[in-house]
Amino acid sequence: MLNLKPVLPLLLLFSAGAFAAPSVYPTGVTRYDPAKAFNQYVIFSGADKKTHLIDMNGNEVKTWPQAGFPSAIIDPQLVGGARGRVLLQLSEKDPGKLGSAGNGLGNQSVGELDWDGKVVWQWGDQAPGGAAQQHHDQRRLSNGNTLVLANKVHAVAGFKVPQVIDDVIYEVSPQGEVKWQWLASEHLKEFGFTPEQLKLVRATKDPDYLHINNLSVVGPNKWFDAGDKRFAPDNLLFDSRNANFIAIIDKQSGKVVWRLGPNLPTLNPRAPATLPRPVDQFVGQHDAHIIPVGLPGAGSLLVFDNQGTAGYPSVPLGLISGSRVLEIDPVTQQIVWQYSAASSRQPGWAFYSSFISSARRLPNGNTLIDEGMNGRFFQVTASGENVWEYVSPFLGKAPGSDAISNWVYRALPVSYDWVPQGTPRSETAVIAPTAALQPTNASR
């Protein structure tokens, strides 16, 4: 629902030029066209460190008091048909001097919770070092094991910093045993760095040198069906925020068998958005994954291109740049669809999140986008029309700061049949205060 949430009393407001963002703004659902939107629930962990499930009118239908980094839903088929199970973070500890909101050093344990909040599986004490240290992703596999993206603090030969915050992937059995693991620092020469860039990587003062921020299973796809073994369904896809590349790991060998970035042609935000075209430089990207079978665009790579600042050497922020969502043919490495603010007849900076964020394809061809640093989720059609929008009202500390924010790391679509039968939902149209802007240049 539409709620006005003042940050300061109106009598104390400064002129509009005093703030980059409004000091009074709406929260909840600000627009909703039930005929054009894909109707569903959305799950996310708010800045209040709770996990929220909302319906299309922004009504909160379920809350878990734990946060997820991010919250992850479990397919009922993997847990005997049980609906409404989630993977979340269960406990924290002092992360030490290297801990931050962007790593998992303070995360003691992760676990599976049922709809009523009961912990039915937990992993932490059995983890290497006695703590899960999970960050950015965890996923239940079809074999019953759980993939955990985690951190490992240790010395790596050749690095300037005495210890790096390395990225490690664990495959954990229901009994808590690590059945498979992969360590990023053992594959440095597979990530596409030039010799000069590799020197910069090893000389960085930031121990979180790669900052891998998502992990997904490639899943069934047309490329593998056609004989391309790089896209084997069991292979794993991840992206490095700090180094501007996306890669696929061969599950059997641990080797990188496919990669996009880090060195791509410079982005020209004023160039015509002619499609398809070769991928240009994404920066600080998030939520890269292969669109699953059964959804429009299946087999394409979908990624939120933040256009923040990252890379070796660092790519500078653009003066009037914004973020993009890119759908990429992973074989030809061409952009086949994209969304930017211009797609909704807005200036580029009107859609921008320099960090966090996500994008997911929906069954009707729409895309659910989380503009994370502003806590705004919205659905756009293939032509760029905004047909649903929600602004999170849940406030908490901003990452690395005592400032207050409504930031949201990732927002995920949840089908109606994922929840227990009888769970309420609402689908009442919400008319935006001003006429919706018409799309201009998004295409697929």
From TrEMBL:
The keyword Signal applies. It comes from the Bacteria. The keyword Signal applies. Residues 1-20 form the signal peptide. Keywords: Signal. GO terms for molecular function: aryl sulfotransferase activity. Pfam families: Arylsulfotrans. This is ArsR family transcriptional regulator. It comes from Pseudomonas chlororaphis.
